[in-house]
Amino acid sequence: MAETSAGAALAARLGSLGVDYIFANSGTDFPPIIEGLAEAAAKDMPLPRAVTVPHEGAAMAMAHGYTLATGRPQAVMVHTNVGLANAAIGAINARADNVPMLLFSGRTPTTEKGRFGSRTVPVGWGQEMLDQHALVREACKWDYELRFPEQVAELADRAHGIACSVPRGPVYISLPREVLCEQVPVPQGTASMRPARSVAHPQDIAAAAKALAAAKSPVIFAQRGAGSAQAFAALTKLAEDWAIPVCQYWALQVAIPTDHPMATGHDPGPWLAEADVVLVLDSLAPWQPGHHAPRPDATVIQLGQDPLFAQTPIRNFRSDLSLPGDLGENILALADAMAGLDPGSRSERFAEIAERNAASWAERDEARQKDARGPHLTKRWISGEVADLAEREDGTIFGELGARFPDMRLKTPHAWYESPHSGGLGFGLPASMGYKLAMPGRLVISTMGDGSYMFANPVACHQVATALGISVLVIVLDNSEWGAVRASVEQLYPQGFASRTNQMPLTDLSPSPDYARVAEACGAWARKVSDRDGFRAALTEAAGHVGTGRGLALIQARVARD
């Protein structure tokens, strides 16, 4: 039987599992991986494309973004414990988003001499840890160390199967250098471990359908979209046919069009207070418990990959009926169950809800028009402009404390991706780049605050974008502060010293760097703007630049502090 190195066998097995990319930042533990990639290519083994990403946080977010577009997990390889430490935020983000990912890191050689691959440089001692896995164990579904070279194929299969099983999430394997250097048979055959899929019990789906159909004032809360384009259409039709309002509070994805008559404003309070049946769709925190609560006599139904969010130690949202499994498939099953029931006449309720939601949009439009007459650019006004562009071009917007979901009219399931609720900053820019790799023909717009842009290790991101020819439109909303931190202080201490004196220690980011020049130095098209005419002109030119595949374009927009 033909043999190859364990490093080459691993790379080839990832290719046979359908992994398209290995996003990697290499180190001294990588020689068997690098040699293995070259060996596998020379032997015409199926291989993912290996991409050098010179910061692990960016590598993790690129893999995350690619999976948001395709549903398929990608591989990330990093350098021993130091690279893994940089990747930890990305693992936390992936777990919070239930995004499958195959995370690998080298492990400093165990042996000091006597084996091929033993320690050769001082960092081999400096990077030794008692428990390297502890850096990411809580964020990963499963972790293991490759102990014998002949385990390579079966462990890759197991990692892939567990990552893709519902609830999905990242997994981690450490790779000792000596083990990867050894010879193994060339992997044969297909994956030995298929992912576990799950849907809710049909009786529970039927019970949920009957409860919604009989309700006088039902409401649906959705934060992570609908799971698929088909489920998006089914949920939109269900909400319309049964006159059920859908509140997308702190939404990470779009569940129904945001300007649909049944799409509510951002405030969950009024809808929750009157609801007799509450359906929660894969929402980590569908409302704020300190301010909102369902009626004591209401029925609360939680539906999602893990409807009780077992990975979150404290989450005490009531669940009278829990429906586990794939979000999209469960929504389709629920829609089918309700299609067999008679909605009766819902026109009066539909009109009442539609009127309330139209009034909410009128308030938001009036506020945006007021901003348009003011002296400064605002996040609210820019959000509307970006949404208009995305709708015209059937584009996708990534938000990270940049454009704001409540201020945007978005009609498609792929229109919006917000950074995960875990709050690991630096996500938006590299995630949008990974998404663009998977969707090269789509306009992808990445909007972020200035702090988020700095957290993304922008020079590393720009270098990768230039190297791979990634054409993403990036908008940095520059207000020279940690705006989210300021908002949190003002929420907790509205009459406190910081709010009354407008002195916010630890939030100021001035003076602002010239982000446009940073981008230009890396080969990107870039502009700085501070007024509406300048922004509109730059947005048009930037869209044309990325639309013709000429590389990344960045707009640094000076905005008023909220």
From TrEMBL:
Domain Thiamine pyrophosphate enzyme central: 205-330
Swiss-Prot/TrEMBL GO biological process terms: isoleucine biosynthetic process; L-valine biosynthetic process
Domain of life of the organism encoding this protein: Bacteria
One Gene Ontology cellular component annotation held by this UniProt entry: acetolactate synthase complex
Record has Methyltransferase as a keyword: no
Residue span(s) of domain Thiamine pyrophosphate enzyme TPP-binding: 405-552
A Pfam family: TPP_enzyme_N
One Gene Ontology MF term: magnesium ion binding
Keywords: Thiamine pyrophosphate
Keyword Nucleus attributed: no
Residue span, Thiamine pyrophosphate enzyme N-terminal TPP-binding domain: 6-134
SUPFAM superfamilies in UniProt: DHS-like NAD/FAD-binding domain, Thiamin diphosphate-binding fold (THDP-binding)
Family note: Belongs to the TPP enzyme family.
Name assigned to this protein: Thiamine pyrophosphate-requiring protein
Source organism per UniProt: Paracoccus methylarcula
Organism lineage string: Bacteria, Pseudomonadati, Pseudomonadota, Alphaproteobacteria, Rhodobacterales
